[in-house]
Amino acid sequence: MNLEHHVVSPPVDKRELLDDPGRLLGHISRRLFNISRKDYVQGRAALRPESTSSAVLLLIGSQCGENGPGPCLILNKRSDKVRQPGDICCPGGGITPALDGVLSKMLTLPGMPLKRWAYWPRWQDENGANDRAVSLLLATGLREGFEEMRLNPMAFRFLGPMPPSCLRLFRRKIYPMVGWISRQQRFRPNREVDRIIHVPLEWFWEKERYANYHVSFSPRIQGRGNRESDDFPCFMFESEGRRELLWGVTYRIIMKFMASVFEIHPPDPARLPVISGRLRRSYITGK
After folding, report:
1. Dmax of the chain from CA atoms?
2. Would I find Thylakoid among this entry's keywords (predicted)?
3. How many CA atoms lie within 13 A of 59 on its CB side?
4. pLDDT tens digits, 176-234
5. Which of 198, 223, 226, 273 has the fewest CB atoms within 10 Å, measured from its CB?
6. Beta strands of the chain (E only): which ranges?
7. Residue of 45, 202, 197, 65 lying closest to 130 (CA atoms)
8. Is-contact 285 83, C-beta < 8 A?
9. Cα 238 vs. chain centroid, distance in angstroms?
10. At 46, is the pLDDT very low, low, confident or very high (cuts 50, 70, 90)?
């Protein structure tokens, strides 16, 4: 490995980083840049947004709402007016090439998120065409974040891209863009979002929050996967007095982030409790 261009992260106690936002953000940025170099620069993956691609924002903030101070994930709970109602997800959506193409050029102007990203000059030098792809994906995520929850793009600090994940039921590739929200504490959800969810990062060290989600499918959904039921890893937490579940692609994105940045891995699935659920026709139709 050529160490000359590799950003080395000094040894740290990962959980202690949660008490020091400056060190935390520096650590996240370094780890994500090293991951993206491996996946995108060295050819193990490609940043190639297509018609079936989406961009989402994995948002981290310093205010955990009802859970007090400390870094947390800021997520959306989908409303019953859209597909996948009730799911916890990252803000984001499909690419609108014309509009997002224009917005992507603005992101490289002075004071804008890409221009403020510490690794943007090196990303441009090493990535070639991928610099245009990451700007397009980030523009898509920020536009969708504004539409869904009135996210202020000027309060967003870009920390780096993550490798894509795939939706199983909807055949879509999702590109996560990680960012820090420094000032904005209030959001205004649109009709697609039931409410904003805050999940403290420190909860992911608590093994009792992990479980297996056994899901049975209605006949309409069975036809998509040729199976009556399936098992998914999940993460349990409480929000506004209700139990919530992280599962599916959002769970996979978050756990990939936690493993890459904090070296956190879920417990052995064979030792975890089982939670049962059912997906009905409305899950894929939104009706």
Report:
1. 56
2. no
3. 34
4. 999 999 888 889 999 999 999 999 999 999 999 999 999 888 776 665 556 788 899 99
5. 226
6. 53-63, 69-78, 88-89, 92-94, 156-161, 165-167, 172-181, 193-200, 210-217, 229-239, 242-246, 274-279
7. 45
8. yes
9. 19
10. low
Q: Name the pLDDT band for 45 (thresholds 50, 70, 90).
A: low
Cα separation, 247 vs 75, in Å, equals: 13
Residue 174 CA to residue 94 CA, distance in Å, equals: 9
Q: Which residue has the tokens 């089982």?
A: 274
Q: Which residue has the tokens 């937490």?
A: 237
Alpha carbon distance 111, 146 (integer Å) = 18
Closest CA to 156 of 125, 130, 185, 180: 180
pLDDT one-digit tens code per residue, 243-282: 999 999 999 999 999 999 999 999 999 999 999 988 877 7
| Band of pLDDT at residue 3, cut at 50, 70 and 90 | very low
pLDDT given for residue 69 in this prediction: 75
Question: Where are the alpha helices (H) located in 107-214, listed in sequence order?
Answer: 113-116, 120-127, 130-149
Exposure b/e, 69-94, CB count within 10 A at least 16 = b: ebbbbbbbbbbeeeebbebbbbbbbe
Is residue 1 predicted with pLDDT exceeding 70?
A: no
What is the CATH code of the structural domain delimited by 3-202? 3.90.79.10
By C-alpha distance, which of 252, 207, 247 is closest to 230?
A: 247
